[in-house]
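Lecture notes, part 5. Sequence design as translation. It can be helpful to think of inverse folding as translation between two languages: the language of shapes and the language of residues. The source text, in structure tokens, appears below.
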């Protein structure tokens, strides 16, 4: 059984979309960040950083319980557990790893911080141009839909266009529409229900 501790945030939805797309069943525990659910002793035992998302898998490696924090680590865990979403072969896995790392270290933090740090506009424009060019050449970041797509999608779905006009980039807009129509992605994006 997998428990997913999450809130209505883009970081959290990276976890729920990953779980849904991997076809793993999970129970959502909605955390109220305003009430500081993330700072309780119970949650700090799951994640000493006191953040969401966190997943707890009672059937982890060797049948032991695995607790995973950081949305990127959660996606890697889910892909490995399910044997899905991690490239179609060894070469393609390298593509997944490159784009996953670029998103986690570059595009996602830049776009997330832009609203409060307008000086990041040039950095955002640069990385968005690279992403748009790439998605003009292929359907997904790697050869098949993967965690490289999932880690980026919640950040840009419904992105505030007045902060950055991401929808003006036609290949990214095409990719957002396609990924957003996937049943697993829709299911994950609809969490938490309450
Ligand atoms: N790098 C972390 C970021 C997680 C994060 O910042 N979570 C926020 C919600 S989006 C949070 O838990 N904030 C509550 C707090 O910092 O007390 C990840 O990707 O999981």
């Amino acid at each position: 059984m997998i428990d997913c501790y999450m809130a209505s945030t883009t970081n959290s939805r990276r976890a729920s979309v990953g779980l849904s797309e991997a076809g793993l069943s999970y129970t959502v525990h909605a955390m109220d960040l305003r009430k500081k659910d993330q700072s309780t002793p119970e949650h700090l035992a799951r994640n000493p950083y006191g953040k969401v998302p966190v997943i707890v898998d009672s059937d982890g490696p060797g049948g032991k319980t695995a607790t995973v924090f950081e949305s990127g680590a959660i996606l890697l865990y889910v892909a490995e557990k399910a044997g899905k979403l991690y490239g179609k072969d060894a070469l393609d896995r390298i593509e997944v790893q490159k784009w996953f790392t670029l998103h986690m270290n570059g595009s996602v933090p830049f776009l997330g911080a832009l609203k409060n740090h307008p000086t990041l506009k040039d950095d955002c424009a640069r990385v968005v141009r690279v992403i748009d060019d790439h998605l003009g050449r292929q359907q997904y970041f790697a050869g098949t839909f993967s965690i490289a797509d999932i880690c980026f999608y919640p950040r840009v779905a419904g992105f505030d266009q007045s902060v950055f006009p991401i929808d003006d980039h036609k290949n990214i807009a095409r990719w957002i529409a396609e990924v957003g129509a996937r049943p697993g992605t829709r299911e994950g994006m609809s969490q938490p229900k309450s």
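The translated text above is only one of many valid answers, since several sequences can fold into similar shapes. The chain has a mean pLDDT of 97.
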